[in-house]
Design brief:
- With 420 residues, the protein is an alpha/beta fold.
- The protein has helices at 15-45, 51-64, 131-137, 163-177, 190-203, 227-234, 237-243, 262-272, 274-290, 293-306, 314-326, 329-332, 371-374, 400-416; strands spanning 79-82, 85-96, 100-107, 115-119, 142-148, 182-186, 211-215, 246-247, 258-260, 312-313, 336-337, 340-341, 351-357, 383-388.
- A nine-stranded mixed β-sheet has the order 1-2-3-5-4-6-7-13-14, sandwiched between helices.
- The longest helix has 31 residues, at 15-45.
Length: 420
Amino acid sequence: MLQRRGLKAYTPGMIYQMYQANLDLGFPLRILSQAAATWLRPLRDGGLESFMPRMTLATLEMVAEPTTTHVRPPFGIESVTVAGQQVEITEEVVDRTPFCHLLHFRKRSDIVQPRLLIVAPMSGHFATLLRGTVTTLLADHDVYITDWQNARDIPLSAGQFDFDDNIHHVIRFIEHLGPGTHLLAVCQPAVPVLAAVALMAARGSEAQPPSMTLMGGPIDTRAAPTQVSELARGKPLSWFERNVVNTVPWRYGGAFRRVYPGFLQLIAFVAMNPDRHVQAHVDQFNNLMKGADDSVEAHRAFYREYTAVMDLPAEFYLQTLKTVFQDHALARGTLVCRGERVDPAAIGHTALFTIEGELDDICAPGQTLAAHDLCAGLPDSMKYNWLQEGAGHYGIFNGRRWREQVYPRMRDFIASYDPI
């Protein structure tokens, strides 16, 4: 935990409190703008062509749109097409801890498919960011996902959650699902997933996965440094603890828990491509002026998901920074988890598939591929890599390139190692 690793305690800043106060102050304005927009919208829909009313309506609707929310959006996946038939989907929590629910997308069908556990990233967004990924995978797989909980709502009595706990949650869920469970790690969890499989292999666990797919993950950030990795290793850990770790305001379930606030992570992501987000909002205003409802709703759907943020436990955030980005512990062979040395060379039965995006500016090509050299005990015939041309970070697990080019290869890889 944070204290047992010798990190100095301090009095957190007031960033979170200021952020919450700003949201509270802006709430009445958003409500009033929404009410006014509701009143004006029938005039536009009735064919009003006057410039000023349309500009006023567009401005009101832009102001009415919320900036950030801490509420997990629904997955909203009600059915999927399997073998040409529409099959109903229901969500079921099959295991839980205070920090994570293991969610199953149960099909109302007798079809037996490869069991797949998706380990979602803990990086400021909810697991629902992978909605498109899940929807695609459901056609051919029995899908489970780690639904990480917002640290803002987890009481202090639940204890702490650090990087080692992340690894052991993965092991717990694999063992809960049993032998034959395939793994998919998207971005951040690539390191804890590889570590979990290595520990299971060293222990001779019967639940060792037949395959694991690592997508755009920071296995060794030294292989291809990015703005993200350079920032993480460019300052001492004490700087991050002093400047970005805050406490949850008293009004929430996790009151006084130390966290890395999700809104700060969102700001960091936006700051990487500010021009893109500014242009997206300029386009949204123009589409509102024109009444291009389909484009307007597409923008809103994306930003509803993108601005739904979750806080991370401070001890997890700080230990991840140190272990993955500063010490490169897994890549250097120095990673120890609760007293056990983590050695990926122990893996001999879990096939490996790494997927990278040519234009990924978060985990650049080479960072995930580094897993191949670490898994020295795995035959080359069980190691695969795919570099997706033209894809950025999100493009390898969402959108057209994911559906049409990445997914078919992943599907065939899993099928070739599935025991059923």
